[in-house]
Amino acid sequence: MPNKGLKKIIRQKIAFIDAIPDTFINQTIRGAESPLFDVIVSQFLDKLEVKDGVILSSQNNYRIVGAIDKAWATFQLKNGIEIINAHISNFGTIVGNNIKYYQDILTKNKTFITKAKNITSVINRRLGINADGSLIKSGYMGGILEDVSVRNQIKEFSIRAVANGNGFDDTKANLAEFIKGNDEKLGVLRKYYRNIAYDTYKQIDSMQNKLFGEEFELTYFVYDGNIIKTTRKFCRTHVGLIFTNKQAEEWKDDPDLTAAPLNYEPLVDLGGYGCRHIIRYLTQEMAEDLDPTLKAIK
Predict the structure, then answer these.
(1) Domain ranges, ordered by start, for the chain
(2) Mind listing the pLDDT tens digit for each residue in 45-104?
(3) Is the four-CA dihedral 295, 206, 101, 233 of positive or negative sign?
(4) Which terminus in the chain has less CB density within 10 A, N or C?
(5) How far is it, in rounded angstroms, from Cα 8 to Cα 5?
(6) Would you say residue 2 has pLDDT above 70?
(7) What are the backbone dihedrals phi and psi of residue 223, each rounded to the nearest 5 degrees, phi first?
(8) Cα(129)–Cα(139) distance, rounded to whole angstroms?
(9) Sheet with 278-282, side-by-side order of all strands
(10) What is the dihedral of CA 80, 86, 88, 93, to 10 degrees?
(11) Quick count: other Cβ atoms within 10 Å of Cβ 201?
């Protein structure tokens, strides 16, 4: 059975994977909404021509909409980079937790340090991070910084306000809600990062576990994690159980797997879209200790 230290690592690992998407969205991203709104107001909205409280549909105002490009660049230069750094830090915690776990169960393996470094390098390349910590141009992290879809949505909102001759105060209030959201809906910034965060953290964790399994020829793994109200039937019937890699290959044909993405990879995607469950490989000794009925697979 796992020792107390290992059990603590496992609990921390599961708790972090469960909590980090919501923490990232509701703290890191939410905290960036006001700075984004403020820079849009100061560099664009406050520059508009207004008469009797109404935004004029003038050529000059259409030209001023272009100032949103500079405002977005200003935001990205400070807040965007802070978001990326927080994102990288979260992945670093996931990677570190996995290394601690496998180092504990593979203490006798003399190649562990070298192989763990190689696996980390693969993960960093997947994330678009160079060995020196800089971002790979057009890589995953760099792509987030370069993405202008949020900026373009704000520009479309602003163009409509100018074209329709909307009231200045109403436009400012509506812009605040568009960027920051309200009690019933997310703002445009959190919507964007929600689509990034909720699957990516878990997928990187699963990818790293899969690589450890391959490198150290581990056959058994636990379908790990918690059951919550929205947990799908597929996950409810798998969580907490021990499987082999071969058994995982059969999941794609399970009728309860209703949320599988295209090109489904069982050891990475598990229960499909939005699944927060993870795999945790076991040594053969650990697997047989947990389930004495298991037979060795050569």
Answers:
(1) 4-201, 218-298
(2) 999 999 999 999 999 999 999 999 999 999 999 999 999 999 999 999 999 999 999 999
(3) negative
(4) C
(5) 5
(6) no
(7) -85, 100
(8) 8
(9) 242-244, 220-224, 278-282
(10) -170
(11) 23
